[in-house]
Amino acid sequence: MKFKAKKFLTLTLITVIFFTTNLSGEDYQYQYFTERDEYVPFSDYIPRVRLHYYTVPHYLEDFYLLYGMKLYYNENSLRKNIEMLKIGLNCKFRHPSQALVTVDTEDEYLKYRKLMFMHINIMIMRNYLKIGVRYDKKGIKFHDVSFAQEINESLDMARDFYKEAIPYWVEAKRYAEEASMIKLTTKLSNIESERYRIITGDLDFNKIINNHISRVDKKQEQLKNFVVTTPQ
Fold first, then answer.
1. 157 CB contacts (<8 Å, ≥6 apart)?
2. Confidence (pLDDT) at 68
3. Pair (83, 163) in one structural domain
């Protein structure tokens, strides 16, 4: 009996020691949140202004980085992206040391800002076009006359969204031209390529948008003809 009691006591002590050690080891991260000075995480030494945009969007780059396009998106997602990017356009840029890419000179930082304005305007424009396409109709069939009013209203909305995209393309093109006047290349490689395509005319959304609007006009005219020729 004494042997069993001693064995039980020994096992109990081992268990207590194990769990105490384990808990103190696993709980070290929570000790950072106590008021004791000896538990100060390294991140606390970083000025809070530099950590702020990781938690609360504050600068243009913060809103840009929040942008996300899901594989399956809806109109609500597109509208959210548009509003978020519009807010970003009215925000200040981060300090040059916190830019999205390394900038070494004032001219490079100036071009960086113009390229970001250009790219964000294009992103807003593309989102308006994506919404417009959702209201557009691929083609008009003779049997669509049964829903002529609804289709016509939907095509009107598509045209409106296409037109909403135009000012953002105009702004994007303006910033592309201004950025091109600064004869150096930033590390925004994909955006630099986008700028080059705009300047050379390889990327011309003015033509694309006008084609969308022209096709909407033709569809509405076709629908109107079906209504006129179809007996009541």
1. 132, 135
2. 64
3. yes
Over the stretch 200-220, which tens digit does the pLDDT of each residue have?
999 999 999 999 999 999 999
Q: Are residues 175 and 114 in contact, defined by beta-carbon separation less than 8 angstroms?
A: yes
Q: CA angle 166-169-174, nearest 5°? A: 130
What is the sign, positive or negative, of the torsion defined by CA atoms of 151, 156, 157, 158? Answer: positive
Regarding whether 76 and 41 lie in a shared domain, the answer is: no
Same domain, 90 and 26: no
Number of domains in the chain: 2
Range of the structural domain that residue 151 is part of: 49-229
- Is pLDDT larger for residue 8 or for residue 142? 142
Residue with tokens 């004032």: 106
DSSP string, 122-167: HHHHHHHHHHHHHHS-S---GGGGGGHHHHHHHHHHHHHHHHHHHH
Nearest by Cα to 177 from 201, 160, 158: 201
As a whole number of angstroms, the distance between CA 118 and CA 176 comes to 6
Beta-carbon count within 10 A of 201 CB: 8
40 and 79 in a common domain: no
Residue-wise pLDDT for 147-165, tens only, equals: 889 999 999 999 999 999 9
Q: Let me know: does 137 contact 81? Beta carbons within 8 Å.
A: no
> Model pTM greater than 0.70?
yes
| Same domain, residue pair 67 and 177 | yes
